[in-house]
Amino acid sequence: MRVLRQIHARLLTQSMPIASFSFGLCKIIGFCALSPHGDIDYARRLFSQIRSPNIFCWNSMIRGYSQSQTPSKEPVILFRKMVKRGYPNPNTYTMAFVLKACSIVSAMEEGQQVHANVLKSGFGSSPFVETALVNFYAKCEDIVLARKVFDEITDKNLVAWSTMISGYAKIGLVNEALSLFRDMQKAGVVPDEVTMVSVISACAASGALDTGRWVHAYIKKQLIETDLELSTALVNMYAKCGWIERAKEVFDAMPVKDTKAWSSMIVGLAIHGLAEDALEEFSRMEKAKVEPNHVTFIGVLSACAHSGLVSEGWRYWSSMLEFEIIPSMELYGCMVDLLCRASLVEDAYTFVQTMPIPPNPVIWRTVLVGCKRNKILDIGELVAQRVLELEPHNAENYILLSNLYASHSEWEMMSQVRKEMKDRGIKAVPGCSSIELDGLVHEFVMGDWSHPEANEIRDILRDISKRVHAVGHQPGISDVLHDMVDEEKENSLCEHSERLAIAYGLLKTKEPTVIRIVKNLRVCGDCHEVTKIISAEYRREIIVRDRVRFHKFVDGSCSCRDFW
C-alpha cells in the first residue's frame, strides 16, 4: 500500500487529461478493493472522490466488500445507489457480484430483487449470472428455486453443475447430490477438484462410505488433481463415515498439511473417542509449526471430554489462550461438556456463570444433561429455568427436566412439566437414522413403517427382541417419555430409528459386512445396550454415528466404554 499511495500522489501532482486521471484512479481503486494487500477503506475514500465512477469502479467496490472478512450488505447498498443514479448501467459482472454478496449474508429478499433486475435488464441468459443465481438460492437453502434456475440453463458449464451439487450437499440431500453428479457424467462434463469436494462432502454428511470410496476411486482413475482442499475433504469424509483408519492413511500421505487438514484429522480422531491419538496429532502439529485455530481446539477439547481428561483439558484451554484465540461459544461448550462428563457439574455451572458472553441454549442444556445424569436437582432446576427462557418450544428441554424430576421420584413435578409440554403443543424431534446400501441412503424415522420392506424389518426386530430377552436384558423404559404402560414403552423403544436401520442392515447384508448407521440425535441408553447385544448375538460389527460421537460395537462391547 505504501507504493500505491506514492503512485496516487504522483497522479495528483501530474498534469494529465481527465480521462487518463480517472483511468489511473479506477485502477488504484480496483487494486485497493480486490487485492489481499489492499485496503477497502482507502478504496472507498477514493471512490467517493470520483464524480462519475465507471462500471469498473462500481464492480470493484461491490466485489471488494463481498470479499471482506466481515461480510455485510454494503455491496447491495452500493448496487442500489448505482441503479438509482441511472449511470453507469450494471453489466453481467455487476449482477453476479451482487448475487454472490447476497448469498454470503443470506440476504434472500435483496437477492430476489436483484434477480428481478436481472430479468428486466435481459441478463438472464448470461452463464455468469445464471450460475450466480443458482449459487445464491442454494446458499440461502432454497434448493427448489436453485434447481429451477439450474434446469433453465440451456448450456450448463462445469461451474453450474458443481454449484448445484454443492447446494444439495450443503443441506444433506446426498441422494440428490449423487444423482446430479451421475447426470453430469452422462452430459459429458468432466468434473474438477471443486466438484469432487462437493460430492465428497455429501458423502461425509450422510455417512455414505461405499459411495465415498467409489468417488475416491473415480478421482484416482480420472487423474483429478488431489489438492490440499480435496485431500482434506477425503480425510473428513472417511472420518465421518466411520473409517478412521483410512482417514489417517489419506492424511499421512498428504505432502503438505495446513491448519484445516490437521484440524480435520484431530476432530475425526476425537469423535471416534481416540483421545490419545488426537492429542498426539496435536503435538505433531505443534512440532510442524502449523498454527492451530479454534476448530483445532474444538477437536482437542472434545478428545479430552470423551476420555474424561479434565486436567489436560484445562491445560489445552490455557494453551489456546496463549495462541490469542478468542474462545467461541462452541469452545466454551466443549469445556462445559468436559466438566459435565467428568461429573464436575458444579464446576461447569460456575464456569458458565463467569463466561464473558451470554451462554446459548446448547451450553445451558449441556449443564442440564449433567444434572440429570448426576441427579443434581437444585442446580438442574435453575439451569432448566434459563434454558426454557431461551428456548420455550424445544421439546428436549422439557424431556430433560421431566427425567430429572423422575430420577428424584418427584412425580408431581414431572407431571406438571409433561402437562406444560402437552398444553403448548410441543412435540419431540423424531429420531432419524440412515444406512447406505448399494449406493442409496435409506432413512428411518422412529415409529415410521412406510418403508417398502417394512414387514421384513418387523420380522428381524422380533428376532432381535427374542435374543435380547434371552440374555436377560431389561429394557430401560425410563428413556421413554409417554403416558404408556411399561409394555407399550418397551415396544416404543423397539421402534427407535437406529433399531429400524440396524434391522434393515441385518436384513440386507451378511457378515463380515460392517453395518454403518448415522443418527440425528444422541443414542439413548437402552438402544446402546441393545446394540451391544446385537453385535454379539449376530456376530456383526456395527458403527453408529450419533449427534455426539461414533460408537463402534464389536462382540458385545462399545468403543466408548460406556462413557458418552
Comma- or semicolon-separated keywords:
564 residues; mainly alpha; six-stranded mixed sheet; 29 helices; 6 strands; 5% strand
Fold blueprint:
Layout (H helix, E strand, L loop, with lengths): L1 H12 L4 H17 L5 H9 L6 H12 L7 H12 L6 H13 L3 H14 L5 H13 L3 H10 L5 H13 L3 H13 L6 H14 L2 H13 L6 H13 L3 H10 L5 H13 L3 H13 L6 H14 L2 H13 L6 H13 L3 H9 L7 H14 L2 H14 L4 H13 L3 H13 L8 E6 L2 E6 L8 H17 L15 H9 L2 H12 L6 E5 L5 H13 L4 E4 L4 E5 L2 E2 L6
Parallel strand pairs: 3-4
Antiparallel strand pairs: 1-2, 1-3, 4-5, 5-6
- Rounded to an integer in angstroms, the radius of gyration calculated over CA atoms is 28 Å
- How many angstroms separate the termini? 53 Å
* Poorly predicted runs: 479-490
Tell me the β content.
under 5%
Number of contiguous helices: 29
Output the strand order for the largest sheet: 2-1-3-4-5-6
Task: Please tell me the overall pLDDT.
Answer: 91
Helix content: 55-70%
Give the overall shape.
Answer: globular
Largest sheet: 6 strands, mixed
- Number of strand segments: 6
Output the structural class: mainly alpha
Describe the structure.
This protein is mostly helical. 65% of the residues lie in helices and 5% in strands. It has 29 helices and six strands. The longest helix has 17 residues. It is globular. 43% of the residues are buried.
Q: What's the gist of this structure?
A:
It contains 29 helices and six strands.
